[in-house]
Amino acid sequence: MLRRLRVLGLARPSSALSSSMVPSVVRTEEVDEKRDDDANAPIVRVRTVDELGRAYGTGRRKTASARVWVFEGTGKITVNTKSLVDYFPRNAHCDDIVAPFFVTDTAAQFDVWCTVKGGGVSGQAGAVRLGIARALQNFNPDLRPPLKKAGFLTRDRRRVERKKPGLVKARKAPQWVKR
Prior knowledge:
Helix 4 (about 90-105) runs parallel beside helix 5. The radius of gyration is 26 Å and the shape is globular. The chain has a domain at about 55-150: Ribosomal Protein S5, domain 2 (2-Layer Sandwich), CATH 3.30.230.10. It is of the alpha+beta class. It is about 35% helix and about 15% strand. A five-stranded mixed sheet has the order 1-2-5-3-4. Strand 1 (about 55-60) and strand 2 (about 65-70) form a beta hairpin. One of its GO terms (cellular component) is cytosolic small ribosomal subunit.
């Protein structure tokens, strides 16, 4: 097309060409070459700890958000200045929160201090679990494979579906009457 424009005298000099006039095939090949170089490089995970020896992780679930700090200790877990059992009275939530420690065989080796807000009890428990898993990964990158295999590093994207107009709830239709 550029050759045809030049023959007709409608094309600008090549120095005035914008990048949008360059064939897209050329640009995508350059980008693909760059991606191949980056894809072959192994991802090196580095231990991320602050000056106090704490690793930080953020967790979210539904509308709950948790900020978690993990550091070496005796296994004490503090949630919003309360102990784990006082803040989460249901055993299922407590088991859910300490699961990353049992998967990585690091139970009673770390203390956890976290703040969590928003959502309900179940969402907060899921947010704290994700935050603990991410903080453990930051503390020791060798713990990533068992955490990833157990699914503790994957954020649960599910949210409450919105109510639609004309329906009783998100999907429940009003009772249908034939006549």
